[in-house]
Amino acid sequence: MLTCAPLTTPFGEMLLAADAHGLTNLCLPGETLDPADHVRVALADHPLLAEAARQVQAYLAGRLQTFDLPLALYGTPFRLRVWAELQTIPYGRTLSYGELAERLGSRAKARAVGGAAHANPVAIIVPCHRLIGANGSLTGFGGGLALKQALLDLERDHPGPEQRP
Asked: Which of 58, 67, 98, 104 is within CB 3.0–4.6 Å of 110 for a Cys-Cys bond?
């Protein structure tokens, strides 16, 4: 059973969810969880969800570049490897699906990387929005391409210390 709480953001309502091991989901606007699988609480009533909300809001305001939250991610070994690799893409940078696949052993896995990124349950925190097409184009994102562009613009407009001139 998951515990979840809504989070109002400039991009719309998101939903944070956790189990006993950590944060399991950050649902983007328009995404939902099966109501039978969770119980809703107020953010203030769940310390981990409250901290996740604080960090997401700080990120969206350009004040946080790295998340520090216990994550409880469940998936196939390949998906877990992709999600771990996504977390190594620096704030303000992008990587193509093929480049990430190459890091995992074969550029031929680019399509599988895309599938794993699409299945990422904690978008933004595990920054799948930093994946782009080989030609630099925006492709696929659970929250839509407009939100993906907005997140990339946010990171460009609020550079971390390593990106500042």
From this structure: 98
